[in-house]
Design a protein that fits this description.
By secondary structure, the protein is α/β, with parallel strands linked by helices. The chain has 4 domains: about 160 residues, MoaB/Mog-like domain (Molybdenum Cofactor Biosythetic Enzyme, Chain A, 3-Layer(aba) Sandwich); about 55 residues, Molybdopterin biosynthesis moea protein, domain 2, CATH 3.90.105; about 90 residues, Molybdopterin biosynthesis moea protein, domain 3 (Molybdopterin biosynthesis moeA protein, domain 3, Beta Complex); about 70 residues, Beta-clip (Beta Barrel). Helices cover about 20% and strands about 30% of the residues. It is built from 7 helices and 28 strands. The strands form 8 sheets. A 6-stranded mixed beta sheet has the order 7-4-6-5-9-8, with no helix packed on it. It has a 6-stranded mixed beta sheet with strand order 16-13-17-21-20-18, with helices on both faces. It has a 5-stranded mixed β-barrel with strand order 22-25-24-26-28. Strand 8 and strand 9 form a beta hairpin. Helix 1 crosses helix 6, helix 3 packs parallel to helix 6 and helix 4 packs across helix 5. The protein is elongated. Pathway: Cofactor biosynthesis; molybdopterin biosynthesis.
Length: about 400
């Protein structure tokens, strides 16, 4: 058995960026309703002022502020009522001293107006309006361009559009959205023991998990899953399937077969298909050490461990970060929470150690509990709310230490 030639996580990330520096994603335009969770291929700037006119933020009376100074319930001001500004209509009227117009929330203000008195502080007396509270200049008014100025930067290239962003773009009349093409991903799970979840298990068999968890993770990163397949631990079959996937996939994820055992063929098959083949075999990380990264015929191939927790962690720290930060150019913020670790966690120096955790609140404190188990246990994945990272040069974490948990 050959020993793995391991590299650190940072070294692996840098190698991946360097080897795939020639990969450029195509740009396309999609309709606004199809743009949620897509990554922008260009900066987006505001085409107009928002709002495009001075508008009222309350139901009330448009006035000249100085006409209300000194007003109170006991000594009100009286203004001539000139009419009503209709919602959604252009206000062409001009307000003079001692005059007012009724205006609804969101309505355009008449020229010359510089404040709005809330209707609650007024009383109608025939053709006069009794003003019972003073207002300051520009009170209860959203000025033209106060929200957004024309040509303001809305979203940077690489931004992933959220539902609230879609609403904002609609409000600006932006319908055709420039985005990067979706990365196409094929997922291959290897193992003689694997059967689909739809089939009944025989003794010695297990249901395939990694195809599903990796598929969900890749889709969450904005990728399009082209194929999901289970194959046996057989060299020729693996080579044939990889060659087939290369024809229609940007990225191929292979679960299992990444170590150095008798039936671990991923590296050998990669090298056989094309150059440069596998350029990483082994990462100084726990779990996930037997990880392979290769480039074959211009395509990225990641050989992930077969253990479910290991496969998902390596995907998160290696594949996901490369997809979002390098290919899509996104500024990635990993949601996290700081808390107190509940027990000692030993760790051997020399490799990064990722520990699945659960998170709870006790007596106003955030408590982080490690989830113990082996990387093939189903319960670890179901119980985990996040993970913590123990750095390479650290021998562990002591009970009561403050740690940061990254949320899953």
């Amino acid at each position: 058995m050959n020993l793995l030639n391991t590299v650190t996580v940072d070294e692996a990330k840098n190698k991946i960026k360097d080897v795939f520096s020639d990969v450029k994603l195509k740009e396309e335009k999609v309709h606004l309703l199809e743009a949620v969770n897509r990554y922008l291929s260009q900066d987006i700037v505001a085409p107009i002022h928002v709002p495009g006119f001075h508008r009222s933020t309350v139901d009330g009376y448009a006035v000249i502020a100085r006409d209300t100074f000194g007003s109170s319930e006991n000594i009100p001001s009286f203004l001539r009522y000139r009419g009503k500004i209709e919602m959604g209509m252009e206000a062409t009227e001009f307000i003079g001293s001692g005059e007012c117009y009724y205006v609804p929330t969101g309505g355009m203000l008449p020229m010359g107006c510089d404040a709005v008195v809330m209707v609650e502080y007024t009383e109608v007396l025939g053709r006069e309006i009794c003003i019972q509270k003073p207002v300051s200049p520009w009170e209860n008014i959203l000025k033209k361009g106060e929200d957004l100025r024309q040509k303001d930067l809305l979203f940077k290239k690489g931004h992933r559009l959220r539902p609230q962003d879609i609403g904002m773009l609609a409000g600006l009349g932006i319908i055709d959205i420039p985005v990067y093409e979706k990365l196409s991903v094929s997922i291959i799970s290897t193992g003689d023991e694997l059967v689909p979840p739809t089939k009944k298990l025989n003794l010695g068999q297990i249901h395939d998990m990694n195809t599903y968890s990796l598929s969900a993770a890749a889709e969450a990163d904005g990728c399009c899953i082209i194929e999901r397949v289970i194959i046996e631990d057989e060299k020729e079959g693996l080579q044939s399937k990889i060659e087939e996937c290369i024809a229609h996939s940007h990225i191929i994820l292979i679960s299992g077969g990444s170590s150095a055992g008798d039936k671990d063929y991923t590296k050998e098959v990669m090298d056989r298909i094309g150059m440069p083949g596998a350029f990483i075999h082994g990462i100084s990380v726990k779990p996930g050490k037997p990880t392979i990264v290769g480039k074959v015929k211009g395509r990225a191939i990641f050989g992930l461990p077969g253990q479910p927790v290991s496969a998902l962690i390596v995907y998160k720290i290696l594949v996901s970060s490369w997809i979002k930060e390098t290919l899509y150019g996104a500024e990635v913020i990993h949601p996290s929470i700081e808390g107190t670790i509940s027990v000692n966690i030993p760790s051997a120096p020399g490799r990064e150690h990722y520990v699945m955790v659960s998170i709870k609140e006790e007596a106003g404190q955030t408590i982080i509990d490690p989830i113990y188990g082996k990387s093939g246990m189903l319960s670890m994945m179901a119980k985990a709310q996040g993970y913590i990272k123990i750095h390479t040069n650290t021998e562990g974490i002591l009970k009561g230490d403050s740690v940061r948990a990254f949320l899953l």
